[in-house]
Amino acid sequence: MSLAIDLISAINQAIKNLFKRRITLRYPEVNLDIERGYSYDPKAQVGIAGYKGRHILHLEKCTGCSLCAIACQNIANCIAMVKLDVSYPQNKKSIFPQIDYGNCVFCGFCVDACPFYALFMTNDHELSSTDKKSLIMSPLQLSIPPVKKKGLVQLEIDDRGPYHK
Ligand code: SF4
Ligand code: SF4
């Protein structure tokens, strides 16, 4: 008897959900459109809400001050300052941050510490790899903005909660 009740209840639940709007995405064919990454405005001293994905480094603003590396509380020291063979007037030693995403916890402390608007985060969250070394991103790699993905959708919200078309 209880089995029959459970069965009817399960079917009932399934029928109800048939008419609800879907909130799951057919990832990776469809991606959620996350507009921007987390940033920090040092003059106003406010963080600007955004996704905490991999960083973007603006080489032409980075002074090589190392404050981002010092601010990183990660026990594995995931920011290393490395020398590049490039020349920028504001960076006399030509040293820039390199980030190890095998250890980064995406806290954003390094972004908060940068006084020169040189280091922000992006909406790029697809960083998985089978090779740990490839998770170390050089300053040059960090300076390239993430590629805008195809099949982006934005969630909409109605009185039944978030959904996508
Ligand atoms: S996001 Fe956090 S853990 Fe990652 S590099 Fe910056 S300070 Fe370190
Ligand atoms: S990213 Fe910012 S905090 Fe880090 S070295 Fe460059 S200027 Fe300094």
What this model shows, in words?
The chain is an alpha+beta fold and 165 residues long. Helix content is 19%, strand content 21%. It contains 4 helices and 11 strands, in the order H-E-E-E-E-H-E-E-H-E-E-H-E-E-E. The strands form 5 sheets. Strands 5-6-8 form a 3-stranded antiparallel beta sheet. The protein is elongated and about 80 Å long. Bound molecules: iron/sulfur cluster (2 copies).
Write the layout of secondary structure elements.
Layout lengths: L1 H17 L12 E2 L6 E3 L4 E3 L6 E3 L9 H5 L7 E5 L11 E6 L8 H5 L5 E3 L14 E2 L1 H4 L9 E2 L2 E3 L2 E3 L2
Parallel strand pairs: 1-9
Antiparallel strand pairs: 2-3, 4-7, 5-6, 6-8, 10-11
Bound molecules: iron/sulfur cluster (SF4) (2 copies).
One iron/sulfur cluster (SF4) binds next to helix 2.
